[in-house]
Amino acid sequence: MKATLLGRLALLAIVPLVALLPLPEFWFTQLNYIGLYSLVTLGLVLLTGIGGLTSFGQAAFVGIGAYTTAWLTLNTELSPWLTIWVGLAITAASALVLGWVTLRMSGHYLPLATIAWGLALYYLMGNMDALGKYDGLLGVPALTLGGIDISRGKPFFIFLWLLVFLGAFALLNLLDSRTGRAIRALRTGSQMAESMGVDTLRHKIGIFLIAALFACVSGWLFAHFQRTVNPSPFGLKMGIEYLFMAVLGGAGYIWGAITGAALTKLMEDQLQVLLPRLIGTSGSFEIIVFGILLVLVLKYLPDGLWSLVARLRPPARRTGVPVDGPIDLPTRARPGHGEVVLQVQDVRKTFGGLVAVNDVSFEIRAGEIMGLIGPNGAGKSTTFNLITGVLAASGGTVRLQGETISGLRSRQIARRGIARSFQHVKMIPDMTVLENVALGAHLRGQAGALRAMLRLDRREEQRLLALAAQQLRRVGMADQMHELAGNLAMGPQRLLEIARALCADPTLLLLDEPAAGLRYKEKQALAAVLRQLRGEGMSILLVEHDMDLVMQVCDRMVVMEFGTRLMEGTPAEVQASPAVRAAYLGTEH
Ligand SMILES: Nc1ncnc2c1ncn2[C@@H]1O[C@H](COP(=O)(O)OP(=O)(O)OP(=O)(O)O)[C@@H](O)[C@H]1O
């Protein structure tokens, strides 16, 4: 922590020191453009590289910041120090509306909507008399601080780059937090994050908003730096160029944003001189080179140039937040041993004409492991998805401790005390095991994005990480907590999912084929963990194909066939049943 803080202070101190260097004015102008681009790409890294949402419309948000301050300072007495807030408010309102409409839909709606948005705003700026049409607005006043003009040269350089670094630190803080883990989970699709209680739509809109606000600040600075605004720097071409900068630098890395912005600006300048000379005619040929470069980077270095630097550093290891501190988080009231925890009553699911689950009923009691077995296509996963809210039931009721949960969304069900694992492990490979597990504790914290950015979340963060470490010890993975999750073998990956689910302090644990892909020893370790959890009073529903494991650990089991409940009984009763044997062998019974 201290090392990080010192490093950041050193970076901030370097800015005024660089300004003291006897560099030609031209270089400061270059660095100023790089800083302005970096502010936009920082937001894009969060949005696209980390959140997995593509926007071609960031230049339009830059335009809003620039035009707002230009128009207001030219037509009213407002100081630029006030117009920035107006620009931010307009940006926030447009980003919220755009995000709210498009982010609810999956697929390519956001990229398409941002293209439409970029084009619409470009033509709006170019056609409004009040905004000077395509000539724009001239004579934007200078930005002054204490009577000093800070809108050009070295003073602008210092102000701008301090903002760039502070913005980068805020984003780094954000990513290293409860909200940051939720944001990083967005790329894996919404199912896993929602089952941890994350409101994925809110988080998507949140990062879209943050990226737009970063772009707006860049536009505000740009208007006072250029002293004039016109639509061309805010068009779709520039929107694509910002995306190129983020991809080139490394869309998953905060420092990749600055790297990409710097390289693009420097290359652009060189190419604009060199290419017309080589070709013998003038034109924007650099765009062709950028296009080729983009293809090459995506093919050979999909994580961008910064990934080369990131590879040199040791795997992420948190030293700042101690993981053995007090946990001190509120816990759920536990049901008494033998009390009914889950009641599945006449649950039904149809897909068109197919009845995948046909009026199935069963109960799970506190402190027992219930197996849900059956041949392929019997309806186990569908039943699992009906309980966890991934699918809406066509009929029947599911109750958790007497409260009806059917019809609720999966994050609402998670809040009520059901935690789950996935048939195909869902985790974030470039986060550490500890961070992945801490994602399971999402609902046990409250700190939001702003608190995280300002580092006011440390007490809570310490508790969440201590809790994650405790659950990792519980499943025997204490030694691996600082490894990258992507490096784990299948056995530990399954245990990671169990530890993550346990972080939610669940009343009921639902495990979807946890033994799939495990070797014998790993299965034994899994069986030991399940028995230990039952010993601690946990109720577990186990959907599993591995009969050895099921017979070893389950107290009772429900057997399904063709969507219906074939029988329910102890492992011995199920094993002795001719009907079950026939179902598995595919013979008549
Ligand atoms: N989204 C869906 N749309 C249409 N049919 C579906 C859908 N999901 C499942 N089904 C069908 O419902 C039936 C039950 O499938 P389900 O995946 O629940 O079985 P399962 O017992 O979990 O099988 P497995 O052991 O192979 O995972 C199957 O016939 C399957 O093809």
Automatic annotation (TrEMBL):
ABC transporter domain location is: 342-587
> Cellular component per GO?
plasma membrane; ribosome
Q: Where in the cell is it found?
A: Cell membrane
Q: Coiled-coil regions in this chain?
A: none
Keyword Coiled coil, does the record have it?
Answer: no
Keywords in alphabetical order: ATP-binding, Cell membrane, Membrane, Nucleotide-binding, Transmembrane, Transmembrane helix, Transport
Q: Which GO terms describe its molecular function?
A: ATP binding; ATP hydrolysis activity; branched-chain amino acid transmembrane transporter activity; RNA binding; structural constituent of ribosome
UniProt membrane topology term:
Multi-pass membrane protein
**InterPro entries, per database record:** AAA+_ATPase (IPR003593), ABC_AA/LPS_Transport (IPR051120), ABC_transp_permease (IPR001851), ABC_transporter-like_ATP-bd (IPR003439), BCA_ABC_TP_C (IPR032823), LivM-like (IPR043428), P-loop_NTPase (IPR027417), Ribosomal_uS10_CS (IPR018268)
Tell whether Nucleotide-binding is among the UniProt keywords.
yes
Annotated Pfam families: ABC_tran, BCA_ABC_TP_C, BPD_transp_2
Q: Which example biological process does GO assign this protein?
A: translation
Q: Which residues cross the membrane?
A: 30-49, 80-101, 108-125, 156-175, 205-223, 243-266, 278-301
The name this protein goes by in its record: Branched-chain amino acid ABC transporter ATP-binding protein/permease
Show the taxonomic lineage: Bacteria, Pseudomonadati, Pseudomonadota, Betaproteobacteria, Burkholderiales
